[in-house]
TrEMBL record:
It comes from Fimbriimonas ginsengisoli Gsoil 348. The keyword Lyase does not apply. NCBIfam families: PRK10869.1, recN. One of its GO terms (biological process) is DNA recombination. GO terms for molecular function: ATP binding. This is DNA repair protein RecN.
Length: 558
């Protein structure tokens, strides 16, 4: 769970620090005070895209620091270990900085870490439900994501298999389509492929050949200069009177005769003996090199011509001999296919058919899994709706077939009915705003309980609710807080009154600038805040009494 959140220079927040506890925490404040900025801060800390517009004007960077206690979260601890994330005991420290000039940095445990790692870890730490999630329920195409996320691991494994099978099917169909298109200009294509194959085969390039030929060409072009240098060096070292080998040998003999008088000279003689051996071996090698040097105009022309041929192939077919040979391999395959047109088309049709059948087979496995688990998902969601005072609501998952692709062969849509006797219909077409809010809370509650994420954050998930419905949602959030750390941004006093801890976000002016601050409210301050939420600016003693009664019946002291 989150134990501390520190935000600096994020939009209108100069610096705010929240010390959070287990249970149910609400954040309230007037519209525009900056409540959603705290959600933005948490999203940043979990790896969301960094936007330089969030940096407070005049500041060089914005910073978000989060401290999390994972002592009771084995899944999150295991994920940290998998990702190589450093912990201090079971405490996780995350810091994200966004520079005003662009770019961001992420540190986990003080160590620079890729943002991608943070994103992979974030889903094990916090489940965040914002107002935008309501819109996703109105979009039937996104319903499949809710179901798959609830099912979890088995779907992930099947989707990976489907993605691979889908790619193989696409490739098989691409090859068939390409072949059939090739048949239209078959003769022209045959002529071109035959010419390309013959041209490359006539040269018969070998990997790395050009570099070796360049070295040969240099030796042949400068044979005379190389001979002068090598024979001259050989004479100096070994062939002329009083050469280097003779002089070095004489020096070794002299010192060896003196060793009997001073054994310490051995340390001098030893490297000289080794040097004499090395020089003699070098002279032997140089002699062989010199004797093989000769000006050969015919060979020079042959090597130069070969180099030209290889460079011509490189210009036309690849950057080096390996790429040219790959081109030759592909050209031979295409030529073989075109030369055996009918048989090749049959093979490609069969290959495409097999790939499509394999895709359909694994997609069928996924369909069976989705249909089987959709029943439980619908039952759990409907159970949650019962807890949210929608006793007559019916929720179901409709799964219809579609052509298989990388997501499977299913169209998934949620059906809903709020009233007795009314058949379930597509959720996005019939549900009211308040109903959508409660269905979202029901779904997310079922999913959160399934995932086991320690912290649930709801950003005005109560939008469109009021009266009795708001009370039931408040009760449900309170029940969730018995198992999770729950953070809620709300405008409803019924929900705020249910919380264990209450922060108020306030917007003030300081030195001619707007500054947002966050403050934990004492019990008497909560009364004033609930009263403000009930009556706006016209808070009376009667409203305060109502607020005290609400706090007593919903939250404080329960």
């Amino acid at each position: 769970m989150i134990v501390e959140l520190t935000v600096e220079n994020l939009a209108i927040i100069e610096r705010s620090q929240l010390v959070l506890k287990p249970g149910f925490t609400v954040l309230t404040g007037e519209t525009g005070a900056g409540k959603s900025l705290l959600i933005d801060a948490i999203e940043l800390a979990l790896g969301e895209r960094a936007d330089t517009e969030l940096v407070r004007t005049g500041a060089s960077r914005a910073s978000v620091s989060v401290v999390l206690d994972l002592s009771n979260e084995p899944a999150a601890l295991a994920r940290c270990q998998e990702l190589g994330v450093g912990l201090e005991g079971t405490t996780l420290y995350i810091q994200r900085e966004v520079a005003a000039k662009g770019g961001s940095q992420c540190r986990i445990g003080g160590k620079l870490t890729p943002v991608s790692t943070l994103r992979q870890l974030g889903s094990f730490l916090v489940d965040l439900h914002g107002q935008h999630d309501h819109q996703s329920l109105l979009d039937a195409e996104r319903h499949i994501g809710f179901l798959d996320e609830w099912i979890g691991g088995p779907v992930v494994e099947l989707l990976q298999r489907i993605e691979a099978a889908h790619e193989r099917a696409l490739e098989a169909n691409r090859r068939l389509t390409s072949f059939r298109q090739g048949l239209r200009d078959r003769e022209h294509r045959l002529d071109l492929l035959r010419f390309q194959v013959n041209e490359i085969e006539a040269v018969n390039p070998q990997p790395g050949e050009l570099e070796e030929l360049d070295a040969q060409l240099s030796r042949l072009k400068y044979a005379e200069k190389l001979a002068t240098a090598s024979f001259g060096a050989l004479a100096t070292v070994a062939d002329q009177e009083n050469c280097a080998i003779d002089q070095l040998g004489e020096a070794v003999k002299l010192l060896e005769s003196a060793i009997r008088y001073d054994a310490s000279l051995e340390s001098v003689v030893a490297p000289m003996r080794e040097a004499l051996i090395e020089v003699e071996e070098a002279a032997h090698t140089l002699r062989g090199y010199s004797e093989n040097l000769e000006a050969d105009p015919a060979r020079l022309d042959e090597v130069a011509g070969r180099i030209d041929s290889l460079k011509r192939l490189r210009r036309k077919y690849g950057a080096d001999e390996n790429e040219v040979l790959e081109f030759l391999h592909d050209a031979r395959e295409q030529l073989a296919l075109l030369e055996d047109g009918e048989a090749s088309e049959e093979e490609l049709v069969e290959a495409a058919s097999r790939a499509g059948a394999a895709l359909n087979e694994v997609a069928s496995e996924l369909t069976s899994l989705r249909k089987e688990r959709a029943v439980e998902f619908a039952e759990r969601t409907q159970h949650q709706l019962r807890d949210l005072a929608m006793d007559r609501a019916v929720f179901s998952v409709d799964i219809r077939p579609k052509p298989a692709d990388a997501t499977g062969a299913d169209q998934v849509e949620f059906f809903f009915s709020a009233n007795l006797g009314e058949p379930p219909r597509p959720l996005g077409k019939i549900a009211s705003g308040g109903e959508i809010s409660r269905v979202m809370l029901a779904i997310k509650t079922a999913m959160a309980g399934r995932a086991g994420v320690p912290t649930l954050i709801f950003d005005e998930v109560d939008a469109g609710l009021g009266g009795r419905a708001a009370v039931t949602v408040a009760r449900k959030l309170g029940e969730l807080a018995e198992h999770y750390q729950v953070l809620v941004i709300t405008h409803l006093p019924q929900i705020a009154g249910r919380a264990d801890h209450h922060f108020r976000i306030e917007k003030d002016e300081s030195s001619g600038r707007v500054v947002t601050s966050v403050r934990l409210l004492e019990e008497h301050e909560r009364v004033e805040e609930i009263a403000r939420m009930l009556a706006g600016d016209h808070v009376t003693d009667a409203v305060r009494a109502n607020a005290r009664e609400m706090l007593g019946s919903l939250g404080v002291g329960r």
